[in-house]
Structure formats: structure tokens, C-alpha cells
Design brief:
With about 300 residues, this protein is α/β, with parallel strands linked by helices. The protein is built from 10 helices and 16 strands. The chain has a single domain, classed as TIM Barrel.
């Protein structure tokens, strides 16, 4: 039984990764299981300089999910390179750094640094809904996505994955733009912009008023968007949004995803990613599938 995947030139032992912002830099989860059991780890969003993020409150629960408005708080790429990367390199897994910025120049300078680090790929975050500058501003139009991707491509030799926002009218168009800009793959979806109101205070629960919705509530939207993008581009897709089991992962792969990423589920169960790997293997045994690659994009539409 083969679970190995080649994703944009990154050889992974299985198709399961963990979504940026839900796994930190792996230290907390390494206390529970061997991180080498995962196909890859996607780091917390990392910027050129340290970011303090948004003011609290920044997280709240919703029906079948959660809202977050962290605002890409992180210690910066220099700290990551000195302190977190050496720790991650102890494990037999691939390391993909989620790169965020407030301007194209910032993305470029950051990726120049990342290009010289011992990492396996870069996930370009042009889709975070919780910051006032950058990110989603670049990823919400065909031209914006294409431009930032092409500028980063000039300085980055490593596999480049561009993370797409669902907060657009035509996500397939944005995917085409980043493909034309030189992306090796796309990941989707980032979180839909949402709001929760405290009816007694008559104010939004989050200090930033709105936040990104994640968890099982968004899975059907994510599956639909993965399918749409798979019909529009020729580069591989990482699917994410509400995955909490092997069955969920298989659904995304049938829709066209080559790999999957687990986000909010990590907060429910620290073992969820390993259980998802095991769930994929169980599905393969049950359905007599020898090679996981044989199911990618094999949904039969009505």
C-alpha cells in the first residue's frame, strides 16, 4: 500500500499536513507524538519582522467551528531560523514555511531569506482576512495574485505554494492568476470572513469585529472550491477546511486535492493529524486501493 505523494516537487510519505497557525512550530504537539508521522508541517505564518498581532479577544467558538483574529502574531523569520527550524529538522518530515507580508517588497525580502534556509517549500499567504495591510489585498484579484506570485518567483527556487482566500467571487480565476505567476501549487481554502455578536453587550465578540471562520462548518464550501480550482489549473492542490478524519481527507482528494491540511481539528484533539493518516490507510484497505494517487480527482459527477 503506497501513501507517498509528490506535491509540487516535495516528496511526502503521506498526504497529511497541518495548517498554518494551528500547529505553531510543532513544539507543543511533539509532546504527544512523533512529528515524523506527518507528510509535512506547515509553520505558523512567518513575517520579515516580528508582529504583535491584533488585540484580544482574538478567538471564540461558533457552531461547528471557531473564529480567530490573531493577526499573524509571530517572532519573525530571524527568530524562526535560529530557534524553531533546528527543532523541526530533528523530525523526518517536510517543512513548509507560511510566509506573510504587508507589501510585495516585504514578501520578496522574506522569500530571499527563506530561499537560503533548510526548508522544503514556501506557502505564500496572500489570503489572511485578519490584517489591515497585505495578504488578502493581494490574493483577492487575478492581477494581484499573479503579480505577487511572479515577484516572489524571481527570488525563490524552492517549491512555491500560494494559499488562496475563499472571500472572492471566483476563486478559480485567482488560482489561474497565481499559476500564471509561477506558483508550483495552491492551497485552499483559507478562512471565510465572519462575525459573532454578543447579544447582551450588543458588540462583536472579537476585538477586531470580524475574524476567520474555521472548523467542520466550512468543509462543504472548501470541497466545492477545491473541485472548481482543480478544473481550472494544472498545478497540484492542497485542500483544507474542516478536516477532522480520514474520510474528510479522502473527500478532498476525490475532489482534486493531492494533499490535505488539518487546521482547527488540532485544537480539538492533538492526535487528529495522526488519526487522519491512519484513517486514510484504513479507507485504502477497505476499498482495496494500492496507491493513494489513484483516487486524486476521481469524483464522478452526477
Amino acid at each position: 500500500m503506497n501513501t507517498k505523494i509528490n506535491f509540487a516537487g516535495i516528496e511526502m510519505k503521506n498526504p497529511v499536513t497541518v495548517a498554518s497557525g494551528t500547529f505553531g512550530y510543532g513544539r507543543e504537539y511533539a509532546e504527544f507524538f512523533d512529528l515524523g508521522k506527518l507528510g509535512a508541517i506547515i509553520t505558523k505564518g512567518t513575517s520579515l519582522k516580528p508582529r504583535s498581532g491584533n488585540k484580544p479577544s482574538r478567538v471564540c467558538e461558533t457552531a461547528s467551528g471557531m473564529l480567530n483574529s490573531i493577526g499573524l502574531q509571530n517572532p519573525g523569520v530571524e527568530y524562526f531560523a535560529k530557534n524553531d527550524l533546528p527543532f523541526l529538522r530533528k523530525f523526518d518530515t517536510k517543512i513548509i514555511v507560511n510566509a506573510c507580508g504587508s507589501s510585495i517588497d516585504e514578501y520578496v525580502e522574506l522569500c530571499k531569506i527563506l530561499n537560503n534556509l533548510d526548508i522544503d517549500g514556501v506557502e505564500l499567504n496572500v489570503s489572511c482576512p485578519n490584517v489591515k495591510e497585505g495578504c488578502m489585498a493581494f490574493g483577492s484579484t487575478y492581477e494581484g495574485g499573479k503579480r505577487v506570485t511572479s515577484e516572489v518567483r524571481k527570488v525563490l527556487n524552492k517549491p512555491l505554494i500560494v494559499k488562496l482566500t475563499p472571500n472572492v467571487t471566483d476563486i478559480a480565476s485567482i488560482a489561474k492568476g497565481v499559476e500564471e505567476g509561477g506558483a508550483d501549487a495552491v492551497s485552499l481554502i483559507n478562512t471565510p470572513l465572519a462575525m459573532k455578536i454578543d447579544i447582551y453587550k450588543r458588540r462583536p465578540v472579537l476585538a477586531n469585529n470580524t475574524g476567520g471562520l474555521s472548523g467542520p462548518a466550512i468543509k462543504p464550501i472548501a470541497v466545492r472550491m477545491v473541485y472548481q480550482v482543480s478544473q481550472a489549473v494544472n498545478i497540484p492542490i492542497m485542500g483544507l477546511g474542516g478536516i477532522v478524519s480520514g474520510e474528510d481527507a479522502i473527500e478532498f482528494m476525490l475532489a482534486g486535492a493531492t494533499t490535505v491540511s488539518i487546521g482547527a481539528g488540532n485544537f480539538i484533539d492533538p492526535y487528529i493529524s495522526v488519526k487522519t493518516v491512519e484513517g486514510i490507510e484504513e479507507y485504502m484497505r477497505k476499498c482495496n486501493i494500492e496507491d493513494i494517487n489513484d483516487i486524486i480527482g476521481k469524483v464522478e459527477m452526477n
